[in-house]
Amino acid sequence: PQIYTLSPPDALPISPRYYHTAVWTGSEMIVWGGFNGSIQLNDGGRYNPAGNSWTAVSTTGAPAARWYHTAVWTGSEMIVWGGYGGSYFNDTFSYTPGRVLYLYQRP
C-alpha cells in the first residue's frame, strides 16, 4: 500500500478544537464549530490535501457558536443542524464553499 505523509501547514486559520464537525467535499475537508476547552466556536476552515493548505471559512452570517452539532455534505453545500451552545439549538444553516454568507433554513 502507498502511504501518504503530510506536513502540517505553517499557519492554521482555525484554533485546535473538539466536538466539531468535518465534511469531505471530494477535494477538501471543511471543519466547522466545536469547543476549544473554554468556549464554543462558530468559525472553521477548509483543508486542501493536494496543496496541504488551509483557508478560513467566512464567519459572515455564521450560526451561533456551538458544539455537538451535525453536518452533512450535499454535493454542493454543507448543512449544519442543531448542537449545543449554552442551550440546545433546533436550527439549520447551509454553507457553500467560496460564499461569504451562511443561509438560514427553517426547521
Explain what the structure shows:
The protein is mainly β and 107 residues long. 0% of the residues lie in helices and 38% in strands. It is built from no helices and eight strands. The strands form two sheets. It has a four-stranded antiparallel β-sheet with strand order 1-2-3-4, with no helix packed on it. A hairpin with a 4-residue loop joins strand 1 and strand 2 (29-35). The radius of gyration is 14 Å and the shape is globular.
Lay out the secondary structure.
Layout: E1 21-24, E2 29-35, E3 40-48, E4 53-57, E5 70-73, E6 78-81, E7 92-95, E8 102-105
The helix/strand class is mainly beta
- Residue windows where pLDDT falls under 50 for at least 5 positions: none
- How helical, in percent, are the residues? under 10%
Total strand segments: 8
Rg for CA atoms: 14 Å
Mean pLDDT: 88
The ordered string of helix (H) and strand (E) elements is EEEEEEEE
Q: Sum up the overall morphology in one term.
A: globular
Count of runs of 4 or more consecutive helical residues:
0
